[in-house]
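Example 3.2
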Amino acid sequence: MSLNHTPSAERVHIGIFGKRNAGKSSLINALTGQSLAIVSDVSGTTTDPVYKAMELLPLGPVVMIDTPGIDDEGPLGKLRVQKSYQVLNKTDIGLIVCNARDGITEAEMALLSRMQEKAIPCMIVLNKADLMEKEELEKTVHMVQRKVEEASDKKVCPVTAVSASSGARIYELKDQIAAMVPEKKPEYPIVSDLLEPGDFAVLVVPIDKAAPKGRLILPQQQTIRDILEAGAVSVVVRETELADTLAAMGKKPKLVITDSQAFAKVSADTPENILLTSFSILFARYKGELTSLVEGVRALEGLKDGDKVLISEGCTHHRQCDDIGTVKLPRWIRNYTKADPEFCFTSGGEFPLDLSCYRLIVHCGGCMLNEREMKYRIACARDAGVPMTNYGVTIAYMNGILKRSLEVFPEVCRLI
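Structure, written as tokens:
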């Protein structure tokens, strides 16, 4: 993604849900003014969630998510419905699209109940309003609103009628969606609260076979931007140049931030009086719950032959010959534990619904996941009683430098 674009994980995620042929895809096209979603009279045209990052005025940068119908049938249909419900885990605003002639059905009420359980701001959108007489439409809107209020225990869920085909009330719907955006910032920034104006931060970025050609990866880009926001100075080096760079600097850096896989060398080359952490640890605090991920890493000590370990990444990328998730981490964990666990791997939007078979989950930093989904995954692990940690915490722990890498966060460091 270009540095000029807001990363998808930082955009408001708007999920469009409903039954087949309710007009979900048509509504997305009407909202965006573009033919982003395939529209057809055939039921079940959308078979997998479709994501589109874009600008939606007056809201700004968003990700629109078109989902399969929640009334799909058959073995494949059930899987599609399951995927639709999984999208809730990353949805910031949910639109439940109903056919205005049908009002709201039990399937849509069940979906509304799930959204409200997850505290997702939501709205009922009665589509195809142009096919009804004004008086009949007003009666339907009132009836649906009353049914929603009775079932929602005073939780707010607006009901509005639109026509995706004619464009009627689409602009009003955009304004309503914009008003639903929670006015909340992440609990923590990435790194800016750790720096004062004029501080130096050294970023260690390995350039190896796994590094993307001609660019930095997203966590590195976002960290540099956050350092600039703090009025501080970023110095970017490879791990092979770190020692010479620190020796040549006329001012001691406030912080060294490293890619996790270079943790051991960077720790050896960084004087003890300079704070050290990793991109993965910073993002654990920014997107998730650093404390629980630190507590989870202790499960490494009890791993036995045959125990299942899930290694999960939030993005999909081309695997290199020495990929950190599928090659390096399993090798390092085997070397550290002297055991031979069974490793399972997921990437992108895939995350198992049943975690009970795993002894440990090791997750990436989550830079491609929004905060809602990252915290959902952590909560799923907690509910299943499965310890969960992340790449940076795991690698620092196995190298005996976790305490040092957490000194920048004294409240968490006390747990070690």
